[in-house]
Amino acid sequence: MSKRILIADDQMATREALSKFATMQGYEVVTVDNGAALLSVVESEEFDAVITDLVMPGLNGVSAAEILKLHGSSIPVIALTGIPKQDVGPYQDKFTKIYHKPVNASALLDYVASLLAK
After folding, report:
1. Widest Cα–Cα separation across the chain
2. How far apart are CA 15 and CA 94, in angstroms?
3. Would 35 disulfide with which of 1, 45, 64, 103, CB 3.0-4.6 Å?
4. Nearest to 79 by CA among 59, 58, 64
């Protein structure tokens, strides 16, 4: 059975590129464009990992990750961001790892694979 990844990003190009690359790597992928949709889908479906943009309109990735943890979720949540590295410190503990855009999809999915192999 393939591993399932949820990708949440408000930029369609990012969602599509990551989804295509992850699918080619054998993952089943679901995409959404905001944090509220991320939470809704996680409530009704099971995922092995979540990849989310840090900043999105409406409910952002930080808030979505906090809500997941408050609800007892142990799903690894990986953030993507365009925020400068020196400004993400306050968010580090909310995520399994933070990647900076433009993200190297191969490195990102290698990290996901290492998490899911544990």
Report:
1. 39
2. 21
3. 64
4. 64
Residue for token pair 């790597």: 25
pTM of the model: 0.95
Give me the amino acid identity at 9.
D
Which of 71, 36, 29, 66 is CA-nearest to residue 50? 29
Q: Which of 71, 72, 56, 67 is nearest to 7 (CA)?
A: 56
Q: Band the pLDDT of 56: cuts 50, 70, 90.
A: very high
pLDDT per residue as tens digits for the range 13-38: 999 999 999 999 999 999 999 999 99
**CA distance linking residue 97 with residue 112, whole number of Å:** 10
Amino acid letter for position 45: E
Q: Are 47 and 64 in contact (CB under 8 A)?
A: no
First CA to last CA across the chain, in angstroms?
16
